[in-house]
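ok so i was messing around last nite and threw this chain in just to see what happens. nothing serious, just curious
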Amino acid sequence: MTKGNRSRESSANHSIRDELIDALQDDRVLDLLCNKLINKLSERFDEKILKIQTDLSDTNKVVAKLEKECELLKENNTRLMQSVRELEEYSHRDNLIFVGLKMSYAAAATSESVSNVDCENSVINLANSLGVKITSTDISVAHSLGKNRASAPSTVLVRFTNRKARDLIYN
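result:
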């Protein structure tokens, strides 16, 4: 590049620079540039706000759906808990509790804990003494509640295999 070309190019650059400086000093040009910049920023903010609103709306829908599911689960849980209580109550109908039952078998001789067999035998003996004929097959399980010492009267829980056997003693 020759010195003349550089000079013309430099002169052209100075001329453009001077025109830009003059234009920027003109309030109308500044107002126009500011308005365009504000409009562009406003468009971007509007887009972002619209996206946030859409996301929020979607999130609210999901939350509402989850709240409904939660309510349904609470209702189902309440119904299931009631069913469990009813089943427990129903299953307890085959039980009898004997209070003050004297254990006089193997445990009494050794002063050890009362076994389930001792409890069962004591209940069978009590029933037979009352004129009620039951056998060990009529008893599902019998065990002592609380103190498990043969020397003291016990509280014994007995679960019968069927309600008829239970009712023979109860009635």
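not much to say yet. The radius of gyration is 47 Å.
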